[in-house]
Design goal:
Radius of gyration of chain A: 20 Å
Low-confidence stretches of chain A: 6-10
Keywords (chains A, B): DNA-binding, Transcription, Transcription regulation
CATH class of the largest domain in chain A: Mainly Alpha
Number of domains of chain A: 2
Protein name (chains A, B): TetR/AcrR family transcriptional regulator
CATH superfamily of the largest domain in chain A: Tetracycline Repressor, domain 2
Helix content of chain A: 55-70%
Oligomer: homodimer
Number of helices of chain A: 9
CATH topology of the largest domain in chain A: Tetracycline Repressor, domain 2
Number of strands of chain A: 0
Shape of chain A: elongated
Largest sheet of chain A: none
CATH architecture of the largest domain in chain A: Orthogonal Bundle
InterPro entries (chains A, B): Homeodomain-like_sf, HTH-type_TetR-like_transc_reg, HTH_TetR, KstR2_TetR_C, Tet_transcr_reg_TetR-rel_C_sf
Pfam families (chains A, B): TetR_C_24, TetR_N
Distance between the termini of chain A: 62 Å
Structural class of chain A: mainly alpha
Strand content of chain A: under 5%
Largest interface: A-B, 34 and 34 residues
Organism (chains A, B): Amycolatopsis rhabdoformis
Chain lengths: 197, 197
Amino acid sequence: MTTPPARRGRPGYDLESLLQVAVKLFNERGYDGTSMEDLSRKLGITKSAIYHHVPSKEELLRLSVDRALDGLFEVAASTEQLDGRAIDRLEHLVRGSVLVLADRLPFVTLLLRVRGNTKVERSALARRREFDRFVTDLVKQAEAEGDVRPDIEPAVAARLLFGTVNSLIEWYRPRRGSSGAELADAVCKMAFDGLRA
Amino acid sequence: MTTPPARRGRPGYDLESLLQVAVKLFNERGYDGTSMEDLSRKLGITKSAIYHHVPSKEELLRLSVDRALDGLFEVAASTEQLDGRAIDRLEHLVRGSVLVLADRLPFVTLLLRVRGNTKVERSALARRREFDRFVTDLVKQAEAEGDVRPDIEPAVAARLLFGTVNSLIEWYRPRRGSSGAELADAVCKMAFDGLRA
């Protein structure tokens, strides 16, 4: 076996570390307000060094929002694999979504701020709507099975549920060693069983 | 009794209607991204006609966020007047806050997007923190009285509650004749008693 040659000179960026910096900058200044020039200054590398990794700013946006959306759709897929009652699948979905949010916080934050000015943004919004329909259908099923209170419209219940989940980006900041599991517990307790003792 | 003379020429703006247009524009383009020039173009009046009503763009921001904050603090004040258990006062506070949000949607939306770059913004953030402390104290009291589940930290419960309330700005659009009371009901049902049947 051979070992790869040691890297020379100052540490470079790979696509992953470049993406981490880009998503942070997009969240601070807005995607529209961030230029490749800003990004190259922040990274301390030339624009052509960035273009070595990625063809455009919009591609950085696509990779960033897909990081969030792929996480959410993996949870949706694992939810569909489950047997049993819809309410339990719904809880699995909410819990998993909080874990994705906690694990990929800057990517989910960016996704939730996307407003649809570019093709990538419109496509992200379309995937969000698809996810929302999945949630609403699950609430409807759970209500049909008698496990969700019938006095809240399923579409409203779905929005309140994910409104609560999404609002976490406003204040949740991960601590070292925390997986977001406690947070997911708290959200599920409040949303499904209520704060009342 | 005398009647005021009829207004001449094209309809003008009073401070209130000017504010309605300004807050809409701030929400669309961001406060920083909106100039008095933009506002005068949108209104179809000169900048000096705007300055007749209000001395600066920052004053428009102050009036707008105060419209939201004053509503929330009126609800807090009426909550403090109530006797009885803290959980009931907390529910009164949540319900009243949803009604303020539904009634003053563009103003609350602007308030929740304020990030603190100017004196007015910093002062708005300070009042928001004061409101948050009020909520957290009420959750603590309710927990001490045994009415809130003890397995969620009061500060987390307070944030989840108002995360749910604040998330309404993302999707709620008032309909004619709707007071937001149904929405307030749905929020209180989910947050205090849970979605589970």
